[in-house]
Batch of 2 targets.
Target 1
Amino acid sequence: MKGSNFSYLVKQGVVSVWHNRMMSFASFCILMVSLLFICLAVLFSLDIGIIIGNIEDTNQIIVFVEKETPEPELAHIRDVLDSFDYTASVDYITPDKAWEMMQDEFNESIAGVFDAIDEHMMPHTFTVSLNDITKTAEAAERFRIINYVEKVNTPFDFVNFLISIRTTFTVIGIAILIALVAVCIVIIYNTARTSVFARRTHISIMKHVGATNAFIRFPFFIEGMFIGVIAGAVSWYLTKITYESVVTLFASDIMLLDVLGINNIIGFYEINWLVLGANCLAGAFLGAVGTVFSMGKHLKV
Amino acid sequence: MVELKNVDVHYKEGGVDALNDVNLKIYDGEFVFIVGSSGAGKSTLLKLLTREKVPTSGRVFVNGYNLSGLRSGKIPIFRRSIGMIFQDFRLIPNLTVYENVAFVLRVTDRSSRYIRQRVPYVLNLVRLNEKARAYPTQLSGGEQQRVAIARAFASDPGLIIADEPTGNIDPELSYEIVELLKDINKCGTTVIMVTHEHDLVKYFGGRIINLKKGSVDFDDYIGGSNEGQ
Ligand SMILES: Nc1ncnc2c1ncn2[C@@H]1O[C@H](COP(=O)(O)OP(=O)(O)OP(=O)(O)O)[C@@H](O)[C@H]1O
Ligand SMILES: [Mg+2]
């Protein structure tokens, strides 16, 4: 295709977006909302996955044992903890070590707390990793009745909660996505039809003077692509704003940050360009392909 | 060269036999009037020549293309070898006169250099250079049809097909339109024109094909009253 005719056709496509602005706007909106929805769903689901992974990796069942427990009893407790099928490994943390770890963890944020406590108040601690998370509740129950055991912490409960909300949201998300896709198809189809109808004289004359179908489709292709790219860019921006404000909301809670390991979740700056690129490409693709597909049967003259 | 061999066209909707066993040869450089009463099959015949329709049976050859066997991918290429003029002009309202003509050259992917010299040339031929920047709605019917003629001729086709090109314009201006087609014909382009206006036919004369109920009723040359002028 000659350059001048190429730019003429591109201009035709872009001008048509304006001539056909009601339907163009509808297409733009539905594409934008769909892309925004997909982006946020993917990002948050990846994040929840990361959080679950963090908790599963770093947290074990923590068994606190009374300070006064004699040495041989500690060895015995260790053996008991180790004897269960679902126990993967057992680590012992001395009160001194626990004290150090605690100081490290909180050194800046709440230094004043340490005035009130010292290392002599720390219990003996066992951390038990399980090879089967589903046995968490059962294990906690068994550990609790061992002699000298003071307290058992099971962070897995929270993991199960996260997994269950993720499952729920996945199901809801897929349902919404299907609805969005359906609306997308209807709207893009009608936009293309309106656009073809508005230019039916153009098209019939083009057919009569020997334009190929590819040539006739080209402005429509550009029109769809143009709408799609803009929808992609806007959805990128909205994704960025939404995602960053949600993360900021959670990140302002330092405890939550620590417990969930939120520090490891995806920072938008890392994927800024990726999201922008993917959105524009997906928008362009959906817009262009949708438009060209929808106009297929209107081309027969 | 246009040739129809034993052509039948049957419209399923309405069960109409629009053309029955039509045999016809039109040689390169001819100027042919096709006449006949309403419903005789004139438009149907032209649609066969532009490959808008295929015959129910029989064969159609135009400009060396066997239209019955033409693959749909080749139709655009074939259509570039013909120019079409319609009763209702079919100009694009939101394009200027210049753009309406340039449009067909863009469609057939001519270079912008060629377009810049060809468009003024054909507009000059129909004496509409002055109106190049006007829009179709700012022109009279006769002027609009002249734009359409310029457009049909722009791609320098071997054959121009006109379906009642004078049907929507004042009878006095009809002569001017046919004169233009005659001028184009003198450059070597074959012209086939359907018309209802017997006065025009009598005035210009030449080869006349009369269709009657889908068959060729008369096909011969008559002398025109303008001859010797
Ligand atoms: N698309 C169609 N479907 C069904 N029947 C058709 C169709 N087009 C034309 N016909 C019929 O075929 C016959 C010939 O029609 P055609 O349009 O060729 O006539 P015509 O000679 O051009 O008439 P007119 O002078 O009024 O334009 C008519 O009886 C018409 O009703
Ligand atoms: Mg007709």
Note: The two ends of chain A are 23 Å apart (CA to CA).
Target 2
Amino acid sequence: MTTPSQTVGPFFALGMPCPDGVPDGVWLRGRVLDGAGDPVPDALVESWQADPPAFSRGATDDAGHWAVRVPPPQRYVDLSVFARGLLRRVVTRLYLPGVPDDEVLAGLDPARRATLVATAMPDGYALDIHLQGPHETVFFAV
Amino acid sequence: MESDPPLAWPPYRSTALRAPTLPPVPLPPGRTELTGPVFGEGDVRPTDADLTRQHAGDPLGERIVVHGRVVDTDGRPVSHTLVEVWQTNAAGRYRHAVDRHPAPLDPNFTGAGRCLTDAGGRYRFVTIRPGAYPWKNSPNAWRPAHIHFSLFGRAFVQRLVTQMYFPGDPLLPHDAIANSVPQAARDRLVAALDLDASVPEWALAYRFDLVLRATPFEEPR
Ligand SMILES: [Fe+2]
């Protein structure tokens, strides 16, 4: 039996410092929003990509904004979202716009698919994470 | 995982607007999920594992050793993986701007540590026993003393963030967060007093072993 998960609580910044990120990287950013559409100011978003291997994480600010700076991803990055009020992490993906659908995207109906596809920005990509609500992000069971 | 709490857990009020409501979409683990960040000696300093030696003086409180082993559900040790911890000081106060609990800060205690597990999956911290603190979840709700743990494992799918509690804590049965865990798995979060690992005349020890899920990941030969 695995050790059960517990929430990160509101004080995770003490023990889970955010790295600076790669200087020449691209920014992945967005907001974390709750079921009322309000920003979640105490969430942590971690990104992981295999090619090239790169880990980063960014905590949300008072407006719910997170940002990580990573090497340009191939097609997607995996995201873990932690927060006060989340008893375990939730997992999603940020897909770059314009990449051909893989099995995962192709298996979703269009409205849900859209929750995973980022918008191109001058310095990277943006994607909001909706924990609940009419635009609830697709979360994965891994 | 059957031992994990549900996302929606009404006794913990903050889950109400934050727990996703739609069923999760199955994602067969691929290369991204079966790999994970690798941390090394450059990511930790020796003083990071001794939370009592990060300032000029000794922190107040009861000095303790917290140690254990990290294994997967197949019993294989999870070696050289990063363990991050954070906690309150002895008075129940976090060194964090958002913590408004009117208990004193300790100038000699930050409350954050990190280390790598050894080849056998073992880790060891020296710290002080954290305090209980009130939170606004319900009237007169106090969190039992706990240490937050963050572990990476070898693969993305093994990532775990949890909390370690102390044996015999009378607040534990009243805690909405600990109680979110299915009853059968709840004692997995409670450390054991470990007199054999204590340092005589200096510090008691608690043992807290952690089990991550197994993965199809193969050890390089
Ligand atoms: Fe806490």
Note: The helical segments of chain A are 103-106, 110-113.
